[in-house]
Amino acid sequence: MALAALAATALALGIWSLLSVDTARIGGTGLVEAVPPAFFVAIFLSLTGFVATLNLRRHTPVLLATQVLVLVVILHAADPIVHGLPRLTASYRHLGVADYIASSGQLDTSLDAYFNWPGFFSFLGLLSGATGVGDLMGIATWAPLGMNLLLLAPLLALARRLTSHPRQAWAGVWLFYLASWVGQDYLAPQAYAFLLLVTLVACLLSAFSGWAWPTGSNRFTRFLAHHVTKLDPTVPHQGMSSPPPVDTAILLVISAGLLVAMTASHQLTPFAAIPILTVFLLSGRLRMPSLPILAVVLSSGWLVFVASDFFDGHLTQLFGSFGDVEGHTLGVVTQRVGGSDAHVLVVYTRLAEVAMVWLLAALGAFMAHRRRTAWLTAALGALAPLTLIPGQPYGGELLLRLYLFSLPFAACLAVLTLLPDRPGGPGWRRAFALLVMGSVLASATVVSRYGNDSMEKFTPDEISLVNQLYATAPDGSVLIEVVHDTPWKFQKYADYDYRALLLAEPRPGAGPLSCDPADRIAQQSGAYLIVTTSQKRAADLLETTPPGDIDRFIATCGSSPGWSKLFENAGGVVFHIQGAGNGN
Amino acid sequence: MAIDRKHIAWVVAAVAVAAVPLSFFGPEGLRMLVIGLLMLAGPGTALVLYIRLGSAGTDGTDDADGAGAHRSAAQSTLPLAISIAVASSLALSTIVATAMVFARMWSPPVAVLVLSLITLLLLALGAKRFPVSAAGAS
């Protein structure tokens, strides 16, 4: 009862403190600058509640679930509670793709990659079309909380198959939420596909655990079985009892269906499923060799045959840097360590958090091996996604995604450093150490997850400005954003020619922005140019332009011949640039 | 447990039946609630009610009061059952919607009808496979 009250107090305090955030104070290190101290008290109460519940003599899953849910709300629902709008420009683009499909029922694979993997967007389009709710902005706003809540059951089901005791599994799930800073939980195909992936792996490890072949049939199978048993003697006992044959067949169909939906929805996730399923096949945790083969066939077949428009036009991007491990790892990390001092601090916090999780996971695996308790499946699951590194950098985001794919497994290993392999609570000393570990990770995640908040959040004024632009610009117009950080495309996705003068990325030593690029784009038939407060913040935070250069750009170019200010509000300004042709 | 299954089955059936007319008309909020629930968990829940997930193999028993293997097994499979119910519903909705787009036969009400029929069919098969008289077996 006292622990339930503690959870309720933490929840109330957490929500209250998020509601009282002054968004104007969100600076270069993000939300951490603006939350009141009560927010950290709420987190600490939540962590204490979980650890104390875990340490009870009696295992209480309902109370543990409550404590985890409270943590999820406090740590992962800040975006909707504080801002009340979707985070990231990608959220708005995704709404636009779904809107295009809902209204036309068609795909335009020449527009961009989204239409080559339309599964998730078709799902959203179906939801919109069948309910008559044309504007899914509310769903996009609350998606981070919804996605994390939906993940709870699959994560727990998976953790139960990776650990020896239920309390270790709960702690693993708790640690996942504490260390999940990558923010890939917005309304996005990758979030959806990750949910399917975790469920798929949990289902396979539960229902199809075991060797796919007689372990004594040849030298290779004997070698595998011998070494797996030597490394982790618990492996043969980690599945559930086999379901009846009919149910086995149905579960196999379900698994195939999850793979199909995943493949239709996201480029990368099915490719991550391949090494994960393969290592489980080779370690006696998956007795269905057909599933890794199906994953290979589906993901490759989709890329080559269904996404052929994308495949044909992006061969260099897809395979041009194959094998460049250094470029895909150190090169990408070096690129990201840039921008303002505050932003660099956020990047270093992320790196430190990743290092901490991986070190704890390695230590947990080592200790579990010494104690002869379950660890090998989690270790293989954590390492398997890393085999994708030589492939391609995935737009510089590969390491982020791989961290996410590995995290459910790594978290289960990390808790083995502190949780014993016997029934019952861990004891107060271990519980205190767990609380310290959780506090460090939670504090880091407030910085790492919300560190880009100043440029990833948007305001109603900015949305209003975009709506005014849509109401003014005729279809077919060229719309220009100065920095690629505008909450637009949530409608009229294919009706305009969208352009960006600068990508939102560090540009060391960048010179002042001139009017020429915009004038050149507008030269033929005119254009509309939008500058928002988020664009300015992104430019300053990442040092895309010299400090204050966007304001100078507005003042200088805005008074140039052919430029006319159409409207302005607290969210930004829109100009029309006269073209030489019809003046449109 | 069997009573729970029966109640869950009735709720899922009600959602599946209500979703069909609501895909044509009705208040937006109600349509979002019912059709959203169907797409989120309808067919998958019916599927989970149809199958029997295996019991926990060598899960660590961690009940200090020794409440028995039955409750432990149920607790062990519940997260997996919920996961499969949600993920398979989402996947089926996605596959139906994507197939319609590729086939150039886009019709959200028809997609809802398909999902509802699949849900009801699975519920009927589940009721036939595990009749209520075998209550204790579940």
Describe the structure.
The complex is a heterodimer of chains A (584) and B (138). Chain A is mainly alpha-helical and 584 residues long. Chain A folds into 2 domains: 2-454, no CATH class; 458-577. Chain A has 25 helices and 5 strands. A 5-stranded mixed sheet of chain A has the order 2-1-3-5-4, with helices on both faces. The N and C termini of chain A lie far apart (68 Å). Chain B has 4 helices and no strands. By secondary structure, chain B is mainly alpha-helical. The N and C termini of chain B lie close together (6 Å). Chain B has one domain. Helices cover 72% and strands 0% of the residues of chain B.
> DSSP helix count of chain A?
25
Please report which band the strand proportion of chain B falls in: under 5%, 5-15%, 15-25%, 25-35%, 35-45% or over 45%.
Answer: under 5%
Number of helices of chain B: 4
**Chains forming the largest contact:** A-B, 70 and 57 residues
Terminal CA distance of chain A reads: 68 Å
What form of chain B results from the Cα inertia axes? globular
Total domain units of chain B: 1
Assign an overall shape of chain A: globular
Q: State the order of secondary-structure elements of chain A, H for helix, E for strand.
A: HHHHHHHHHHHHHHHHHHHHHHEEHEHHEE
Low-confidence stretches of chain A: none
What integer value in Å does the Rg of chain A equal? 25 Å
Mean pLDDT of chain A: 93
Oligomer: heterodimer
- Whole-number radius of gyration of chain B? 17 Å
* Class from helix and strand fractions of chain A: mainly alpha
Number of self-contained structural domains of chain A: 2
Alpha-carbon distance between the termini of chain B? 6 Å
Structural class of chain B: mainly alpha
Which sequence of SSEs, written as H and E, runs from N to C of chain B? HHHH
Unreliable stretches of chain B, pLDDT < 50, 5 or more residues?
56-60, 63-67, 134-138
Strand segment tally of chain A: 5
